[in-house]
Design a protein that fits this description.
alpha/beta, D-amino Acid Aminotransferase, Chain A, domain 1, globular, four-stranded parallel sheet, about 30% helix
């Protein structure tokens, strides 16, 4: 059973789970954590249970986890008393961090102490990392002003993306850019990364990186399933 850990508002994750028929893929949201049946024993997976589709299952039945949730946001805990939501969200985030770290199955991406999805770098850190692996980067400008209206960021007119999944990449770009994207993922210590360039040619500039692959792309979702089956 492959688990997609995501927000209940994540339409792309829900689209994949509801439309994928070739494999056992199911959605896990913070709402599920409030259901009775969860058991988490450190170092004892055979005694640990989770609640999936309102059914209590052994954690050992989980074959992989795709994480699309940086943390639990209080805005989606509608079943919790409003004044308690910030505390409950923090506790759920801490629980998921421990739960994911204790699983023996493959995880895209593994949690860190500050983010359930992996390396939680700021844009400036991604730009620095990109330069470290040999990518061409543009000068980054940051404006600080006391004016009420901040200066709007310039959005490139053209943008292409490369999705790194394990040791492969998906994207219609020059192979040089694809291999650079793989190097950036390795530098960041992640197995899943989406890298954005300003164009597909080999001399393109790095723009940004994130952990949000297009789950409405059958090519990407197939590659994700293949990654888990090969691990």
């Amino acid at each position: 059973m492959l688990i997609v850990l995501a927000s209940c508002y994540d339409e792309a994750a829900r689209f994949w789970v509801e439309n994928w028929t070739d494999g056992d893929v199911t959605l896990l949201t913070p709402e599920d954590l409030s259901k009775s049946g969860w058991r988490h024993y450190l170092g004892s997976l055979q005694d640990s249970t989770a609640v999936i589709r309102d059914q209590v299952i052994s954690v050992e039945q989980i074959t992989g986890v795709l994480t699309r949730l940086p943390c639990v946001f209080e805005q989606e805990l509608l079943s919790i008393v409003e004044t308690d939501r910030p505390y409950v969200a923090a506790e759920m985030t801490a629980f998921l961090g421990s739960w994911l770290a204790d699983l023996s199955c493959p995880i895209l991406n593994k949690p860190t102490p500050i983010c359930l999805m992996g390396t939680n770098w700021r844009p400036q850190q991604w730009i620095y990392a990109a330069s470290q692996v040999g990518m061409s980067v543009e000068t980054h400008h940051q404006y600080i002003s006391l004016k009420t209206e901040p200066k709007q960021a310039q959005i490139p007119s053209e943008r292409v993306s490369v999705t790194v999944i394990g040791d492969r990449y998906i994207g219609k770009v020059d192979p040089i850019l694809g291999n650079q994207a793989k190097k950036l993922a390795e530098f960041a210590g992640v197995e899943l990364l989406v890298v954005h360039y300003n164009r597909p040619e080999a001399d393109a500039h790095f723009l940004s990186a994130d952990f949000w692959p297009d789950l409405k792309s059958s090519e990407i979702t197939t590659a994700i399933l293949e990654y888990f089956s090969e691990m």
